[in-house]
Fold Epoxyqueuosine reductase.
Amino acid sequence: MSATSLDPPDYAALALDIKRWARELGFADAGIAGTDLGEDELHLKRWLDDGHHGEMDYMARHGDKRSRPHELEPGTVRVVSVRMDYVPPGTRNAWNVLDEPEAAYVARYALGRDYHKLMRNRLQKLAERIHGAIGDFGYRAFVDSAPVLEKAIARNAGLGWIGKHTVLINRQAGSYFFLGELYTDLPLPVDEAASAHCGSCRRCIDICPTQAIVGPYKLDARRCISYLTIELRGSIPEELRAPMGNRIFGCDDCQLICPWNKFAQDATEPDFAPRHQLDGAKLIELFGWSEQEFLQRTEGMAIRRTGYEGWLRNIAVALGNAPHTDAVRQALLSRAEHASPIVREHVAWALARHSAQA
């Protein structure tokens, strides 16, 4: 990275412009952080040493680059952190879907278009505006696309604090938002880090269906439903299947219960609107999708990440937790001889659950 300008910019004025341009591009907020993440690096190492990352080997693969921005992108001295709200108005009430065992619960962030490309494109446009104002400068945009400690950076940029559930919370907007970063060589003035406001509250810890939050600020991903339904490629541990309920892709319970989400803001991005009525579709209907239908209907969506095998595995578990009906049993039987041993295993578990109820 190397900024090339004959006359140094007014960096304080530029920082204000960057935040204004970010909002004009659809981001809810932006802040600027330095690159010192020493304490967070130690926290990450402890988490990895405890094995709490499960099969997410990529969390350890890049060594210290995750917590040292200047090593990931040489020349980086500042990070522009942005956030974007993701729950659009009109989305079905999450608690109502969770209380309807025949319905499929999909994490609210994944109901519409995948945010990665959308936010990266906006960050690129932000960089182009900066370039238009000052000329060439060094930068690189990230949205879950490289080893970045995005929550720690966002906290240091003043966008919120990391809650006891390990999710970033903004005092004026709750936690339903995505994060993105622009690493840069511009020596912009940094914002004040956000202070924590969880106090003695432990609602997120107590409500977790699988007790994945093993202590304040400590998440064992191996027990987390988001990990189980998205990252895990093999069998879901049997003792964790019943607590999953009807959650087939991700989980929001720790956010739903958080008092700060009474301040959550509606998304302004129309592409985040639910597709295929996935904010409350019936489990049996989704279980009937062919692989071609799954690929077509999840094109451009985060749900694609679980893969078709994972999709059927997750729904089989949810059907095993659904009320015993002949329709549920017939749906499971239709996949009992599926080519995938993972699918067959979870279907057999679900059928055994229903046989016990019959």
Notes: The chain has two domains: 11-90+112-184, 203-357. Residues 59 and 139 are 23 Å apart (CA to CA). Strands lie at 29-33, 78-85, 105-106, 139-142, 161-162, 168-169, 177-184, 213-215, 218-219, 247-249.
